[in-house]
């Protein structure tokens, strides 16, 4: 049925809605399914007991991941605003939480773009073989097409021993002193060698503060990525909702192609066997449970503000419960499915090199050897996984709802945002830029998000109240969440997040990257970056308390009361049901 103008709030009249339900679902799937599903889950599964890892993974998914995922979708759909405005309405005391989310989205998804840029052009021909039994020593590193360029010269230069598939690297002061001990060196593939030296130019940088020259190939790709993102997002969800038909579905086409190809490789069966063989004794290790919790949380992405932004463009009676379950299952099934592909290829690598799979299957190897076909699909690699669309949309929606003038001039606002991305990004595409990327990944996108989601859960479950939140959901889909969801939101989810935080801090170690130890001041800079967003939460809360009037208890009481006019929203939602006659007609059940 149709609604009359009197039954719709002004902000709902002006707000865009998804033209089709599938646009929303594909956007959520595209956001939550990324390279973490393709390469990190298989590695963690292998590292933590094979098939046995599915036990802690499933438990963390059911008790923490899906409840938080469902919570954020429901918050966005009911309040129909971005993160900043939503938190100001749900619990004004924790409005600073939204600032943390926006900062995190900038840190995390901006860096995701930079990673995609690197992946676009790191397309080495690493499956080369030597011509006969007599391999030769060369002071070189392999470039695509078989050409060679000199590596670092002089004492301590890089010496590559080329054998089928792999290079053997070691340091030698004088080439005449080489003996058969060469085979005790570090084994790495030409893919890794080209990626770090030929593409990134890391050998020209002495570390964190030595940025060196710009890598112009990366600069060009940086500009290309943001141009693609701009024209995909400048008109809002009406355009981006169509772009995701390619960016969310095309990866699955590639996955099926790689599955078929991988199944034909020698050694593929052994790889799958290593992937799935359970080792239940590993479940006694606390690290296994920490890895499972981390993987669930960062692959589903609850609390990032993206799900909230996407859901805010849904009709009020969209079945958000069904959407949460459906997209979560798709996310996890993709992770599991991709494991077969990755370990088929690792089995093939082990077969070709004669190494045991346990020596081949390292996290770095999985990342560097993400199948060649995947990395060689032209510039479409830039948008093959669209989490960067989601992160940018979360920032754009949050700021546009808080400052309506930005919404009225969205094209200019989005252009300025991506121009800022590009200018700041130049530091990251220099010869030492990869050290900056690693630093920002480690400090800018981890603890800040965990603290933000922890306070989000506490604000919804304890300040706003689970009963109010359940009534909001009932007004949208016609039924209240059961006791399972209440318990998860109020007790289990906060414990789930604190579990990750505590174990992460307990296992903290100064940053390293491939043998390079970051100086202490770099770690201090990293913690300053993390705290810049985390401190928004208590900082804004203290500021709000100081500005309020009355006694301290009165100030806090008023600041935890919702200002989102929920009674009026529920009245309109119920009135819409009466006009339509049935909630199921609105949600397409």
From TrEMBL:
Q: Name one GO molecular function term.
A: dopamine:sodium symporter activity
Record keywords:
Cell membrane, Disulfide bond, Glycoprotein, Membrane, Metal-binding, Neurotransmitter transport, Sodium, Symport, Transmembrane, Transmembrane helix, Transport
Question: Which biological process terms from the Gene Ontology are attached to this UniProt entry?
Answer: amino acid transport; dopamine uptake involved in synaptic transmission; norepinephrine transport
Q: Which InterPro entries match?
A: Na/ntran_symport, SNS_sf
Task: List localization entries.
Answer: Cell membrane
Answer yes or no on keyword Cell division.
Answer: no
Q: Matching SUPFAM superfamilies, A to Z?
A: SNF-like
Membrane-protein topology: Multi-pass membrane protein
Residues crossing the lipid bilayer are 51-70, 218-237, 243-260, 325-346, 412-437, 443-466, 487-509, 521-546
Give GO cellular component annotations, separated by semicolons. axon; neuronal cell body membrane; presynaptic membrane
UniProt binding sites for Na(+) = 30, 33, 37, 299, 331
The keyword Secreted belongs to this UniProt entry's keyword annotation:
no
Q: Which domain of life is it from?
A: Eukaryota
Pfam families the UniProt entry points to: SNF
Which protein family is named in the record?
Belongs to the sodium:neurotransmitter symporter (SNF) (TC 2.A.22) family.
Q: What is this protein called?
A: Transporter
Question: What are the leading ranks of the lineage?
Answer: Eukaryota, Metazoa, Spiralia, Lophotrochozoa, Mollusca
């Amino acid at each position: 049925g149709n609604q009359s103008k009197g039954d719709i709030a002004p902000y709902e009249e002006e707000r865009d809605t998804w033209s089709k339900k599938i646009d929303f679902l594909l956007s959520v799937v595209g956001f939550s399914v990324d390279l973490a599903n393709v390469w990190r889950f298989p590695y963690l599964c292998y590292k933590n007991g094979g098939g046995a890892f599915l036990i802690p993974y499933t438990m963390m998914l059911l008790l923490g991941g899906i409840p938080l995922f469902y919570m954020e979708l429901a918050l966005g759909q009911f309040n129909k605003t971005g993160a900043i405005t939503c938190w100001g309405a749900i619990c004004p005391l924790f409005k600073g939480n939204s600032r943390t989310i926006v900062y995190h989205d900038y840190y995390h998804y901006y860096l995701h773009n930079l990673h995609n840029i690197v992946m676009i052009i790191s397309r080495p021909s690493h499956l080369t073989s030597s011509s006969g039994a007599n391999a030769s020593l060369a002071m070189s590193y392999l470039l695509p097409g078989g050409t060679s360029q000199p590596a670092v010269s002089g004492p301590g230069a890089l010496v590559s021993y080329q054998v089928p598939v792999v290079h053997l690297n070691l340091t030698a002061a004088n080439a005449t002193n080489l003996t058969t001990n060469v085979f005790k060196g570090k084994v790495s593939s030409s893919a890794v060698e080209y990626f770090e030296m030929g593409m990134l130019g890391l050998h020209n940088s002495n570390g964190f503060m030595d940025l060196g020259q710009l890598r112009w190939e990366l600069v060009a790709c940086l500009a290309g990525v943001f141009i693609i993102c701009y024209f995909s997002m400048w008109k809002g969800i009406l355009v981006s909702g169509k772009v995701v038909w390619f960016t969310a579905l095309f990866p699955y086409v590639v996955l099926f192609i790689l599955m078929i190809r991988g199944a034909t490789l020698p050694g593929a069966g052994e790889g799958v066997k290593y992937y799935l063989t359970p080792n239940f004794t590993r479940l006694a290790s606390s690290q296994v449970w920490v890895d499972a919790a981390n993987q669930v949380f960062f692959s589903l992405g609850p609390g990032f503000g993206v799900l909230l932004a996407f859901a805010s463009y849904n009709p009020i009676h969209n079945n958000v419960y069904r959407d949460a379950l459906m997209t979560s299952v798709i996310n996890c099934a993709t992770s599991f499915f991709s494991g077969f592909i990755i370990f088929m290829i690792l089995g093939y690598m082990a077969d070709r090199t004669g190494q045991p799979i346990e020596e081949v299957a390292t996290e770095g190897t999985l990342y560097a050897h993400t199948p060649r076909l995947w990395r060689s699909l032209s510039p479409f690699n830039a948008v093959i996984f669209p989490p960067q669309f989601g992160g940018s949309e979360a920032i754009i929606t949050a700021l546009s709802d808080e400052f309506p003038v930005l919404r009225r001039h969205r094209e200019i606002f989005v252009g300025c945002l991506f121009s800022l991305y590009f200018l700041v990004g130049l530091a990251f595409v220099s010869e030492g830029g990869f050290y900056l990327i690693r630093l920002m990944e480690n400090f800018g996108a981890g603890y800040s998000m965990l603290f933000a989601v922890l306070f989000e859960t506490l604000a919804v479950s304890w300040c706003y109240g689970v009963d109010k939140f359940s009534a909001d959901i009932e007004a949208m889909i016609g039924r209240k969440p059961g006791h399972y969801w209440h318990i998860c939101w109020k007790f289990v989810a906060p414990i789930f997040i604190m579990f990750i935080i505590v174990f992460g801090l307990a296992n903290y170690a100064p940053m390293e990257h491939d043998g390079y130890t970051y100086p202490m001041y770099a770690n201090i800079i990293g913690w300053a970056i993390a705290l810049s967003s985390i401190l928004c939460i208590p900082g804004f809360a203290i500021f709000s308390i100081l500005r309020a009037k009355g006694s301290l208890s009165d100030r806090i009481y008023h600041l935890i009361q919702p200002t989102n006019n929920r009674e009026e929203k529920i009245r309109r939602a119920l009135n819409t049901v009466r006009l339509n006659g049935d909630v199921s007609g609105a949600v397409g059940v």
